[in-house]
Amino acid sequence: MTTPTPNQKIIYTLTDEAPYLATGSLLPIVRAFTSAAGVEVETSDISVAARILAAFPEKLTDDQKVPDTLAELGELTLDPNANIIKLPNISASIPQLKAAIAELQAQGYDVPNYPDEAVTEEEKAIQANYSKILGSAVNPVLRQGNSDRRAPPAVKAFARKFPHSMGKWSKASRSHADYMRGGDFFSSEQSVTMTDADEVRIEFVGQNSNVEVKKSLKLEAAEVLDSMFMSAKALDAFFERTLQECKEDGVMWSLHVKATMMKVSHPIVFGHAVRVFYREVFEKYGELFEQLGVNPNNGMASVYDKIKTLPQSQQEEIEEAIHACYEHRPEMAMVDSVKGITNLHIPSDVIVDASMPAMIRSSGQMWGRDGKIKDTKAVMPESTYARIYQEMINFCRTNGAFDPTTMGSVPNVGLMAMKAEEYGSHDKTFEMKEDGVMRVVKSDGTVLMQHNVEKGDIWRACQTKDAAVRDWVKLAVTRSRQSDTPAIFWLDAERAHDRQLRLKVEEYLKEHDTAGLDLRIMGYNRAIRTSMERMIRGKDTISVTGNVLRDYLTDLFPIMELGTSAKMLSIVPMLAGGGMYETGAGGSAPKHVQQVLEENHLRWDSLGEFLALAVSIEELGIKNDNAQAKLLAKALDAATGKLLENNKSPSRKVGELDNRGSHFYLAMYWAQELAAQTEDTALSARFAPLAKSLTENEEKIIAELSAVQGQPADIGGYYHPDMAKVDAVMRPSETLNSALSSL
Amino acid sequence: MTTPTPNQKIIYTLTDEAPYLATGSLLPIVRAFTSAAGVEVETSDISVAARILAAFPEKLTDDQKVPDTLAELGELTLDPNANIIKLPNISASIPQLKAAIAELQAQGYDVPNYPDEAVTEEEKAIQANYSKILGSAVNPVLRQGNSDRRAPPAVKAFARKFPHSMGKWSKASRSHADYMRGGDFFSSEQSVTMTDADEVRIEFVGQNSNVEVKKSLKLEAAEVLDSMFMSAKALDAFFERTLQECKEDGVMWSLHVKATMMKVSHPIVFGHAVRVFYREVFEKYGELFEQLGVNPNNGMASVYDKIKTLPQSQQEEIEEAIHACYEHRPEMAMVDSVKGITNLHIPSDVIVDASMPAMIRSSGQMWGRDGKIKDTKAVMPESTYARIYQEMINFCRTNGAFDPTTMGSVPNVGLMAMKAEEYGSHDKTFEMKEDGVMRVVKSDGTVLMQHNVEKGDIWRACQTKDAAVRDWVKLAVTRSRQSDTPAIFWLDAERAHDRQLRLKVEEYLKEHDTAGLDLRIMGYNRAIRTSMERMIRGKDTISVTGNVLRDYLTDLFPIMELGTSAKMLSIVPMLAGGGMYETGAGGSAPKHVQQVLEENHLRWDSLGEFLALAVSIEELGIKNDNAQAKLLAKALDAATGKLLENNKSPSRKVGELDNRGSHFYLAMYWAQELAAQTEDTALSARFAPLAKSLTENEEKIIAELSAVQGQPADIGGYYHPDMAKVDAVMRPSETLNSALSSL
């Protein structure tokens, strides 16, 4: 038996919602198994609640204080031995953040309220602290490498054998994607590659010629810097046009933005949509709303919330005015038609990378007010990315829905390292307070880029480090070689940023042996079209993309191919040499928690964790020359395949197998595999009794796990649940628990 | 003054319908002008009536006999000095042929009836004679070269300045093209390139193993031979599916075939559509219809025609059964909603190359039974070509209607020489009478290609001569060089024939200096998409295509760019060295004649003739070193530009300027240009008096030309009008006539 060394360690993240609950059941199993190979599994809490608590130590008692685990984990990514299993966490919108704060306060933590408008210095400090928790705050810290996402062969085989449902496409579908034809980020984008390192200034020059430095940026040599803006006037005109067209054509209207990831620009875009859709309401009550602190960027929920302080009669008047808008506006897609939650209620409810694949999978339709699915105009202001969805819609209209039983795969190699591209743009995004000029100026005074802007326009800059691009090109070549699959670099000749990247790609490709590889560079439309044409013929094509397209495509294609992106293998080979293994790119699934609370059934599928663990343990085995770890990984892969084959994944229905039952089967198959292998007899001997007891007690354990279902469950909190309660809820089978502890 | 030499001769064809009538007015003007340069303009009658008369000399009196002018003209194409102006002629369908026969018989010509079913030897001989007159019979004889079609700069400039109307496209349009996904010619296509010359046999092997030689073909070395078939069962299932889908989706159904050009295969395809749409009628009355000689390949008109012999009550019963079909079938597009003429009435009414551009120009809509335009499913069984229309529909849905004021141009270089490709397939197309094997066998017994076929399947073979391909590649390189425009060879890697062609293209391109040229090879979808993407950015792209795509694209793009294909310059640089100048690719326009008969107003626009004449006269001037001819051509080009600028093209409304008035203005401007030029004073002196008298008498002449409008006109026949009557109708201005004769 090997004794644990500091390198033989896997960090397993504790996050939020369903993945967190699932961990309560899975982690004890994993620990029981890995300890046999001397592999330690440590946890690291990066939940939104933990991050809030870590941000305000001065407000907490010593008992309540928690370390800044996210920062610690961030440092670990620079360690060549880092091995991190990263589960999905909440990318908190402001409403979600507020809910988490309220919950913590109710639990007795004296964390401050989120200040909607920060006036005092203290408020500003609080807001600044919270802004680091909002949106995609975890990934930029941890993702210190580029991205390698693909469907594991076992998962692909399963999807081909047991295909998920795909809505039939009508060739006469009216659905389409609509995007700005001018005035958006795409049309104004400028991009430069720095010759030398420099500290540049982002400046605003007002009408009075005063120069305001908005930000200074230290740039490396060969770093790419972009700037671009979206015209508020063009955006409003665009929304109005889309509404008019929907009204004329009798097509439902829907908005798809990414307010979580584009956490500064997209809530503003969302707010514009709210103001245009409910134009009469905001014209009539604008001043009152301002007094009340209504923020349309937070959706109509903000209106309903803030007017609660008004007298009943005035509330009703405003509600009537809101309803009057529906009379002359087109039908709007619903998030929850039963509860009357519209697309414009909360900015984080409809997230483009999840909502568009869902729409395309459902015959290009979304849910209407009457609970029926209907053709819809999918409004996505940024033309840069929206075009790929229109291309796919046209493709499905022409060729019918994709067929999971025959279609090929589109794995992704994504540029993500060193906060590449739009992930790093939050602190470089500004809403213009007046007309003027935004410019980027070198330290010697040279103006690198500039735009004439108007009040309300959204301007943003975005950085991409050369080393990240170089590593990305290398990863693309490696993946293309290892998987013997053609790869397409998605770089659009009409986009300023992509023209800069293309020069780098062409240069860095020369550093590799590309003989016999099929590597091409294409614009987005042609890239997705080519990939889809190959896909319906059963052929695979690696998409090599920037950061945003990485995010969008690793939902889009997996949802078509596998029915979910949660089954994708998502690896971040870190620049420093370590590895991060992400699980369940499909989000943290609030609906799942609701079902647990109501009927103690967790439908969360931990397949992503199984797959990530196998790769993580294997990598650890290779690095430490730990043969038992390698065997453990191999057995886990086989167990996962068996679990899929035997359909032991969680069901959505209460009373049937859920997440916990699925974990039991994993443990049983894993133990059986280890017991059956002959390469390491000690290992086999160690797991034989467990395999035997789990196999023999299958019926009993499943019965114990089923017995608890059907009644409400108490986990002591949503954002900050009680660990003991979670343990009790997630580990209800005494037979299973004692079998594991006997190991 | 040069005296006419045998080389100084232009052949001007006399054809049918509106172009023939227009010639009655234009030719005297042209002759008056060209005679000044010693250029003779001879006529050659290739109307369908003339071709019928030439086919049956033994039935006619000596007075009535006419020479076989088409054959004579065919021989002339082999003369390096040939210079032929070819006007549009009727590609007669069987109903049109029968009407022409009836008219000739009424005029006292004893030509035989067309035998629907030829039983006796005599009938077979008659049918064989007539089969040479049917469909596209003229072009294969005359087009002894490849095709060079483009928008003349003056015409393009005019379209940009005075854009034609374009229907707005809704992004939610339900319109689409639909085509077979299997079982059609595309999916079964096989193709071989002959190593050596050989005489091959097309054979049918029946169930009894008997071998029937359907045809022998002499093939040259390096000639490409294709074979393919369309499954009748798959075709019927396809039609049924499209009808069901339209019914479900509430979208109108329309059929677009090319029964004229694909004169053997497409009427059969059309017949299948008729039988499927009116399934119950044909199931119930099939036997009766057979007795009556109903042929669904001739459309529902054939049913209505044949049942006239039945008792009134039985006619009504059948008509009721037909109407009952409309109850459960989707709405069908109408050719004439007022008269109740449906899409399935006559196979030649809806011709894909004209109907699809018209639909795309009209917001993707066609006329419904209620006289309103509606979204429609455009059914085009052959997937080979239908895909380009779907690609354009998707493009317009996404990007809106094309904008004639800014769009670029897509000129065409078409493979057409030596009856290349599908034009030559009529005598190699067979409808299977029983199940068996169709095969192509070399003289040594080697089977080159074979297909398992079933009763009713349509099998065809198609030839492409190597010399034609070689000349086509040369023409593409020449045009790309001369116009400094990128050229795309439309060759689909998934099509067997195109793969053979591609090998040749790659080889023959090496024979030319292509340095600095942008020449690419793409599949159809990518070719049209790339061309459209360039087009909306104002860029031109030469399409280098096979024969069918030549035919389709030279309507499709011109109708978007110029509102009509009649304004295209259409040149056939013949292999032997001569030139043919085609005018008005837009067809012969039966509606125009109807208007002349009803209100003596001819809306036909002779612009195509003006443009062709200018190129024809210029070419003659160059070949004969005839400076005056060159000046005449130059002046004609300028006059045409002026005519367009001053909007002196024919109006569609009675009482306004018509074809004759437009000719007057051409004559006036042409004379003015010649009088004003200073390069040849003799020529100037000769035309000065004419310029003066036409300019001074403009009002009077226009008044004389207008005076005759508004009443019916008599031209003594439709297919075979009376020349004297046509002359009287088309030349009503005494003042103009005497001014011309004074020249």
List key phrases describing it:
ten-stranded mixed beta sheet, EC 1.1.1.42 (chains A, B), four-stranded mixed beta sheet, 743 residues, tricarboxylic acid cycle (chains A, B), NADP (chains A, B), oxidoreductase (chains A, B), disordered N terminus, alpha/beta, 45% helix, glyoxylate bypass (chains A, B), homodimer, 27 helices
Note the beta-strand portion of chain A. Answer: 15-25%
* Sequence stretches where pLDDT stays below 50 over 5 or more residues of chain A: 1-5
Classify the helix fraction of chain A into a percent range. Answer: 40-55%
Q: Number of DSSP helices of chain A?
A: 27
Largest sheet of chain A: 10 strands, mixed
Class per helix and strand makeup of chain A: alpha/beta
Oligomerization status of the protein chains: homodimer
Largest interface: A-B, 22 and 22 residues
Cα end-to-end separation of chain A = 14 Å
Radius of gyration of chain A: 26 Å
Mean pLDDT of chain A: 94
Global geometry of chain A: globular
Beta strand count of chain A: 24
Q: Which strand order do you get reading across the main beta sheet of chain A?
A: 2-1-3-24-23-4-15-22-20-21
In words, what does this structure look like?
Chains A, B: Belongs to the monomeric-type IDH family. Chains A, B: Its EC number is 1.1.1.42. Chains A, B: Mg(2+) binds at residues 353, 551, 555. Chains A, B: NADP(+) binds at residues 86-91, 139, 587-588, 592, 603-605, 652. Chains A, B: Pfam families: IDH (PF03971). Two copies of one chain form a homodimer. Chain A is α/β, with parallel strands linked by helices and 743 residues long. Chain A has a domain at 176-184 and 231-399. Helix content of chain A is 45%, strand content 16%. In chain A, the strands form five sheets. Chain A has a ten-stranded mixed beta sheet, with helices on both faces. In chain A, helix 1 crosses helix 26 (723-730) and helix 16 (466-483) packs across helix 17. The longest helix of chain A is centred in the C-terminal third of the chain and has 19 residues, at 627-645. The A-B interface holds A 170-176, 178, 245-246, 248-251, 375, 377, 390, 394, 397-398, 526, 529 and B 170-176, 178, 245-246, 248-251, 375, 377, 390, 394, 397-398, 526, 529.
